[in-house]
Design goal:
Its main location: membrane. The protein has 785 residues and is mainly β. It contains six helices and 47 strands. The chain has a 22-stranded antiparallel barrel. Strands 6-7-8-15-16-11-12 form a seven-stranded mixed β-sheet, with no helix packed on it.
Amino acid sequence: MSRKGTLSIFILLFFLNILTLSSQTVQKEKQTLAIVLKIIETRYNISFSYADATIKDKKTAIPDENLTLEAVLDFLKKETKLDFELLNNRFIAIKARKRDKSFTNTQRLDEVIITNYLTTGITKLNDGKVTIKPETFGILPGLIEPDVLQTIQSLPGVLSIDETVSNINIRGGTHDQNLLLWDGIKMYQSGHFFGLISAFNPYTTKQVNVSKNGTPAKYGDGISSIIDMQMPNEIDNTFKAGGGFNLINADVFAKIPLTHNTELQISTRRSVTDLVTTPTYDLYKKRVFQDSDLTNFSLNDDAIDKNESFYFYDITAKFLYDITEKDKIRLHFFNANNKLDYEEQANINDRNEALNSKLSQQNSAFGFSYTRDWSSNLSTTAQVYVTKYDLDATNFDVINQQRLIQENKVIDGSAKLDINYKPNSNFKFNGGYQFIEVGISNLEDVNNPIFRSYIKDVVRSHSLYVEGAFLSNDAKTKLNLGNRVNYFPNFSTTLFEPRLSFSQRFLNNFRLELLGELKSQTTTQIIDLQNDFLGIENRRWILSNNETDTEVINNKNIYPVPILKSKQASAGIHFNKNKLLISAEGYLKKVDGITTRSQGFQNQYQFVNSVGSYQIKGIDFLVNKQFNNVVSTWLSYSYSKNDYTFPDLNNGNPFPNNADIRHAISLSGVYTYNDVKLALGLNWHSGKPTTLPDYANDNPDDNVITYASPNDSNLDDYLRADCSATYAFDVSDTARAIVGASIWNIFNQKNIINAYYTLDSDNMVNKVENQSLGITPNVSIRVNF
């Protein structure tokens, strides 16, 4: 048996043994109310809704597990002096008890503005942030599991032009301009199956915070957005485990109390694609490997057989240790891996030749954090982490007997001290220091003809940040104002990054929101050749050199890669009454320092090296109506105009961005009744910009395609309808199962997501089109303990 098979069986047996343990440990001493509520939510499959200030400083013992839900709520009412209002059989609102009119104290709604935003488990906060909690997540069209990076694409202003989670465009930015954090650690790989599935297991993710603008000063990088994924961080002495599978992968997870003050959280997920061939896998494979070395054949390739083997896996682990009530240690581990092997076999000169090409993509990380609560008003957190990204490809050309090795490696290390101080209920202060060192290397090695190139760069940065937050007594006004100062010793450069978030409620049901920020970024992804890394994952990470003009060093061209700098401002009006939400948000964003190599041009600028900028103006509009906590419907519309400006290109005139999606509409509905959830949705957006050949001025003898104006045309509009359904039921007193089914692209719409042109051997222009996923079914079953 192979090592891979042995490891898989060992992991499975390990988790099966865990599942035979006691389902929970009863802790008699009092716990914070927040921890007790999590236990009760899991035990009775319910969801509590409350303001943070309502339950602050409340403690209670964990109710006996044999009590009914009604008895538990009565117990909590007596212990906490709070009111628990049963909205339906699943949702419970927690409110402070009304005081006598002689009291002037007012209950503050600290952060939550809208709960069940679009669906359950998604919350809108009054600092512009959206929070997603996979544990209480409802359902979205086309999804039967709470895939983190698929879920955020339901938010206005967020989409993926090519339907992947490794190319998410947020307000016109490229995917590398999003900062992905897993428990505070930066991630450089976001997807499995080369972008079709999120690399982050949702069942061990407690909360995801998404910020498109006005991000807190403690965050650097990510000039388009912050996607901050957090695992549970509190010990609640409750055993929890589960597992499931669908037509692509299987997973198991467990949260294991080791002692009264230690806990282990662990999960693993692995594809079944190399063990069982499913219809869903065949459709995914067709989508991902189209226009790659696995499917591209030249005229001489008819006699070549290609057999591929592909699988992926991820492992997460977190160890929690509460040394004392004031001192806490956390250890974090993450590893995600995609592996592809394929063998080319051919008969050349009456000899059978067989060569093995492969591609491996891996992101691993280790982190340590220590939190100290000095008092009820002051706490500090020190964090150290190392994250490593490794993309390796070995590509054999069996006809020409050529071997190409390509590598892209990233090592990112960080040390951070974060300080939080809250002198009273009106003010909060956050500040700290962060040191980051990033090293990125790129290797290319060819054996015929012999060629080798290895480039490694390192950039260090020192950052100081401070931010103050004010919340008025009536909770109508909230202001966050901060600044981050970054110093880059490599370039002797200092950058100031002010941040603003302002929210004002007026006329009871209206809220004004103003957000603004300046940000910078030193890492970016580029495409040197479209067929790099087997043509499957052709982007590679590089570092800024802060140059603006091409330099020649040691007879080699050093292309400019400036520090990316962004400026963004937005203003929004939100109306919320009787479970009707209407919101409109206008924004303006400009990003300087982009290069043509980072934009993936496939026209006359594909091999041009130039530095420029893009500017996007847009508006996001949303109407969301909920009916009796059973039905939630929403319509979102986004309009944006996104233009490049490169002084050296197109005579310096602006032209449409590759990600200029002018119009996007989403219409969806979710129905929830007891344990049944149904979702149906429609997504439409205008076609991606494209550049057409200029046949009238083409010279067939120059071996070059003559193009018309860049991005002056568009692909056909994109249209896709999805549906999904889940049903939950009890299989025992301690186990609950969920079965689900979904269909992506119900009507099998043939959407073209990319098109470009090539020359054949006769100098004739050929059009190449990449299609989106067709009708794609999936089913799943899960059991949680």
